Amino acid sequence: MANIINLDRVSKGYGAAGQLLTDVSLGLDDDARIGIVGLNGAGKSTLLRMLAKTEEPDSGRVTHRRDLRVATLPQTLDLAGDLTVRDVVLGTAWLPQSMGAEHEWAGDAGVRTILDGLGMGHLGLDTPVGPMSGGERRRVALAALLVRQSDLLILDEPTNHLDVAGVDWLAKHLLTRRGALLVVTHDRWFLDAVCTMTWEVVDEQVHTYEGGYAAWILARAERQRIAASIEARRQNLLRKEIAWLRRGPPARTSKPKFRIDAANALIADVPPARDQMSLQRLATTRLGKQVYDLERIELKAGPKPIFQDLTWQVGPGDRIAILGANGAGKTTLLRMLAGVTTPDGGRLVTGSTVRPAFLSQELKELPGNLRLLEAVEEVAKRVKLGDRELSAGQLAEVFGFTDKRIWTPVSDLSGGERRRLQMLRLLATEPNVLLLDEPTNDLDTDTLAALEDLLDSWPGTMVVASHDRYLVERVTDTVYGMFGDGKMVHLPGGVDEYLARVGTPTAPGVPPKGVPQAQQAVSGLSSGELRQAKKDLAKLERQMEKLAEKEARINENLAVHGSDYDKLVELEAQLKAVQQEKAEAEEAWLELAEQLS
């Protein structure tokens, strides 16, 4: 390892935004793979600009190793409309001259592989940039960075405008790439897949943690538990997040270099993230037996056919994720379910008690002439979400708006804050069906955790179109794929099955079809052994759940028979046996999870 960048007592602030960084000292090694997290407006992008030396600090010093090659993807791009893909990807029309032209790549399959991986395979090198959407321009700019060698690659929100397959491909590609990596992203799956260290920008400082998102969550919660300095609401939210991480996919739970017993202590009294049966009963009560029945639906987006002869049903309490490439028609489907548009053929029956709320990707419906709290109270002053009743101010607090911020004019809010307000106003209408189109756009990781905490206990029907793999696995129970063939395909294997079906392009040396590189390299299992191991893992999880229920029943009986000595002795013996069996099952689960990690 060799040091390539140093920040020495760096400070930076802006007039309106205030002080962002104060007296920050950091070092960056040549093989570092660092994810940067923090609230919107905390200073993450500012930190990246100073590390790249595209912006100077107010005080302190930033030093680079001599001849350091830095490639940067900023949040905002300014590409001239008369440029072509060739100019951007192979030339120096956008990148600094120091990065050099890559004419030798023009006939190389590497450029096509990268464009394919980023979902731009349909483009020719002479395609003009001018008519492209913002997302397409951003992907072309990202391709320009990936075809070149650099000592440090700095990416600010690289997964924006990438679908699930594109995010998966980018993670695999970056794992094979030499050099240091700094990435700001709210995609928590991506952070875990790519990064070996996390920097958290908070309170004008940068805290460092070993590991990706999961390790950061565990270490931050442990620090807060020991210090006991954070209010109970925020601590409970973090503990619930840990419960999800601990009980989720094994690759996520076994990665962090963190004491398992400490994690267990933190979540010992935390209930499962979602009581699916109870929510299903509540949803049936609120919605009746019918939500959406689609019979032989024909649906188009302009001249493009989306569905042909589709028969599909959405029931009360269903929590459905829709996966598909950009342009597959996910938004068109949600707009039809929301009643914004009508099908071009067939029959759509909506239940008589359905009260849908549609979260679109646009922000135009927000009232710019009101202050934030007024914009919430315009919808409702008190809101009942599941078994929780909140005032408009309390709901705003859940979404990360402080007492001072709730009086900010809506027109002055950032993109992320406006997105939060949009979701907040939707929930304030107390719908029983949520139709969410890319709900995680522009939200920071803390706000995402708060949103997922609300959705965990929300007793209604939910249809989510999202490229956020973490959100899909966290808040939905059923996954459907749209593959451009006019059908809706049920995917029992979730995101992994989707990636296997689309056959994502792979970087050199990376396992294909959605199998994480670390999983295949570490486990050394064949595909058959891998399937069996996953079945065994699921069996152990069911066994642990049953033992936990049995333990709870015995504890209840202990309380009931507190004066019966003989009965207490019997129950204590039963409890000890169950706890021993539970400990053995957990140990077996951990060993198997390590094999699969």
Automatic annotation (TrEMBL):
PROSITE patterns: ABC_TRANSPORTER_1, ABC_TRANSPORTER_2. InterPro entries: AAA+_ATPase, ABC_tran_C, ABC_transporter-like_ATP-bd, ABC_transporter-like_CS, ABCF_ATPase, P-loop_NTPase. SMART domains: AAA. It comes from Actinoplanes utahensis. Keywords: ATP-binding, Coiled coil, Nucleotide-binding. Residues 530-595 form a coiled coil. Pfam families: ABC_tran (PF00005), ABC_tran_CTD (PF16326). The keyword ATP-binding applies. Residues 5-230, 289-511 form the ABC transporter domain. This is Glycerophosphodiester phosphodiesterase.
